[in-house]
Automatic annotation (TrEMBL):
It is found in: Cell membrane. Keywords: Cell membrane, Membrane, Phosphate transport, Transmembrane, Transmembrane helix, Transport. CDD domains: TM_PBP2 (cd06261). One of its GO terms (molecular function) is phosphate transmembrane transporter activity. It is a multi-pass membrane protein. Residues 144-359 form the ABC transmembrane type-1 domain. Belongs to the binding-protein-dependent transport system permease family. CysTW subfamily. InterPro entries: MetI-like, MetI-like_sf, Phosphate_PstA, Phosphate_transprt_permease. GO terms for biological process: phosphate ion transmembrane transport. Signal peptide: none annotated. This is Phosphate transport system permease protein PstA. It comes from Pseudoclavibacter terrae. Pfam families: BPD_transp_1.
Amino acid sequence: MTSTLQKPAQNQSAPEMINPLTHGRLPKWGPYAILVGGFALSAAITLLLAAGGGEFNWTGFAVLGAIFYIAGQWVIARIIEGSRQATNRFVTSLVTAAFVLALVPLLSLLFTLVANGVARFDPTFFSSSMVGVVTEGGGGIHAIVGTLLITLVATLISVPIGLFTSIYLVEYGKGRLSRAINFFVDVMTGVPSIVAGLFAYTMIMLILQTLGIPLTNVRTGLAGSIALTVLMIPTVVRSSEEMIRLVPNELREASYALGVPKWLTISKVVLPTALAGITTGVMLAISRVIGESAPLLIAAGFNIYMNYNMTQGAMMSLPVFVYRSYTQQVGAGAENMLNLAWTGALVLLIIVMLLNLLARMITKFFAPKG
């Protein structure tokens, strides 16, 4: 008995399947092709405008290219995909353009800093001070050491104060005292940096007057650390407070259910869980103050020699070193001083970058598993 079902012929082609979810969509290479076409058209227009003897306008080229790309993508997407997807692509293009626009000054600054800073980025800069320098040579080792010492002391002062304050606000703070602390922390967040320097200078001067000590050591590394402490404390408090609040209450309740006291729960459960975020907040606070020049210029002063003593004599820092080098461009050594200023700024940027990388490593290492 023969079967009534017959197999289709081998040479019969199957009908083309159309996926309704992908039908009427630009191909993946479509936006890139529109981007290339938009900037090619912009380059042609810019070259025509510059044909009369003018220079190629890179800013106009970038702006025209972005306009052609956004407008062209919106028109083509509206024809092929409809108004809804065209609006989506239009808004996405605007957000991307805003991101690139915000990135351009940063990249330009980095390029300028590196291009000008490598002139004196040599072993002499990291091994010599400015003692005896007239026209050539010199370095910033005294400023690097001063920056590290001042920032280290400021961190040792501000981190315990800020951390204990945040613990009190989250775990114990209630009533008027808690509201008053929050108010003053918010006020300290907006304090200008030069006010912090004046505060440290005045405080040291009053202490020396009270003790009957001659006012010869008002500007010291310790005064600079106190000025930076005033700026660091609110940042440490707010970042630590947010990280402690993110610790789940279930962890605290589980510890309390086992009969563990509250102070031990905080030290053994809450703080280890929030340690990664707290470390990141501390590094952000350090990065925020390490580049301050106004408070250090008032409180720590400046010098041209190496000084390891935090309580005796002025202490140079990298921001003040950059400022002093830039303002001392006179005579035959003007170019050398300008190069030293650029190199000092580059070294300061590298230190901040290393601190942020260290914070990320610590965050990754101490982050709660799972």
